[in-house]
Design a protein that fits this description.
Layout lengths: L7 H9 L18 E6 L5 E5 L12 H12 L4 E3 L2 H4 L13 E3 H9 L4 H12 L2 H14 L22 H12 L2 H7 L3 E6 L2 E6 L11 E9 L3 E10 L2 E10 L2 H14 L9 H6 L3 E3 L6 E3 L15 E5 L6 H8 L3 H7 L13 E5 L3
Antiparallel strand pairs: 1-2, 1-9, 3-4, 5-6, 7-8, 8-9, 10-11, 12-13
Helix pairs in contact: 2-4, 2-5, 2-7, 4-5, 5-6
């Protein structure tokens, strides 16, 4: 297509398959990326879409799926003894050295903050027994998330024949990763002191908009010569979170600024969470009985749009608990959970925005 929006037939089909409600706006900023998708995280309202089901190379944004699987299988616990085959990758690497032992948590930080490819290989092998087995799990997990336009060939995103994703799919992967507080925090960490056999180094976040764009939060960047710039990013202003996916862009920073500025200028729609919003915010975990991946916390029932009209946004403070917040607003925990898809109601981090129904 030549315009910024899907044709109505393809968009309607995507919505019927569990997509997102679409805003009334049909115009947007001038951008250069081949594919882009911008949504309101709370309502699922699509603010801008360009070729969102077109297939493009993901580059390092696929590391979001790598990190998600590692978290689901390990909880970021344990240590990895590095093998020679883990170190044979470039250009971005720690560098790891064969024989050294590094914690899963540190390797995951190197993966998401420094985008280190040797960390991706070491984590994949440790988690699944081999890189090939891990890639098979990545493709299975992508299917479970509803990513029908994604094929994964490696855990780091370096160019590989037949490896691709779509903006719509990457949004689902990004949302699933953001549902894990530990991964969300890592993805918005500006820098991290990493100590390995190579010494202590400062790993800097590749997201140039972190600290430079008002409200910029967790993100994952990507770039190769063939994929060009790719980007998955979240930004929040006045309690409103927008999520952005960019694929195949000559300059993701300019495109991201233009799209986020545009999105924050669009009036939000009434909250009407789509099936996608209820599903992808919940990480999967292995069932003790079967070993198969299932929803760790099944999404609560979603209220109707009409019931969502009288909500107030509350930003969680240090020391808050969900039960204390419920007492403060004189509402039941069940009611709050109905309006907020929380990965773990017992763990709410400072800065999280909860939507509380007003009584009366």
């Amino acid at each position: 297509m030549s315009g910024g929006w899907w044709n109505s037939g393809r968009l309607a089909a995507w919505l019927l398959l569990g997509g997102l409600p679409v805003a009334a706006q049909t115009t947007g900023p001038a951008i250069e990326s081949r594919a882009a998708l911008l949504v309101d995280a709370r309502t699922g309202q699509v603010l801008y879409a360009r070729n969102a089901d077109a297939r493009h190379a993901p580059a390092s944004t696929i590391k979001l799926l790598t990190a998600l699987l590692v978290w689901e299988r390990t909880g970021l616990n344990g240590s990895v003894r590095v093998r020679p085959e883990d170190t044979r990758v470039e250009p971005s690497h720690v560098p790891l050295r064969a024989g050294e032992v590094v914690t899963v948590g540190e390797l995951t930080r190197a993966l998401l903050i420094g985008s280190d490819n040797d960390s991706a290989l070491a984590l994949a092998r440790h988690t699944a027994g081999s890189v090939d087995a891990f890639v098979a799990l990545m493709n299975e997990r992508a299917r479970q998330l509803g990513c029908g336009g994604t094929i994964v060939k490696n855990p780091h995103g370096l160019p590989a024949k037949g490896q691709y994703t779509t903006a719509a799919d990457m949004l689902k992967i990004f949302a699933a990763a953001l549902a894990v507080p530990a991964l969300r925090d890592i993805c918005m960490t500006p820098r991290h002191q990493l100590t390995t056999a190579a010494g202590t180094q400062t790993v800097k976040n590749h997201n140039k908009l972190l600290g430079a764009y008002a409200g910029m939060g967790p993100a994952k960047t990507g770039w190769t010569t063939s994929s060009r710039h790719t980007y998955a990013a979240s930004a929040t202003r006045d309690g409103r979170e927008l999520r952005l996916i960019i694929l195949n862009s000559p300059n993701k920073w300019d495109d991201a600024r233009a799209l986020l500025d545009y999105g924050f200028g669009v009036s939000p729609s009434a909250p009407a969470p789509a099936p996608l919003a209820a599903a992808v915010r919940q990480p999967l975990s292995p069932s003790p009985a079967t070993g198969r991946l299932t929803l760790a916390h099944p999404p609560p029932p979603v209220t109707s749009p009409a019931a969502n009209k009288a909500l107030t946004a509350y930003k969680v403070k240090k020391g808050d608990t969900l039960s204390a917040i419920c007492r403060r607003f004189d509402v039941s925990m069940k009611t709050v959970l109905r309006h907020n898809n929380l990965p773990d109601p017992h763990k709410i981090n400072p800065g999280l925005v909860l939507y509380i129904p007003l009584r009366g």
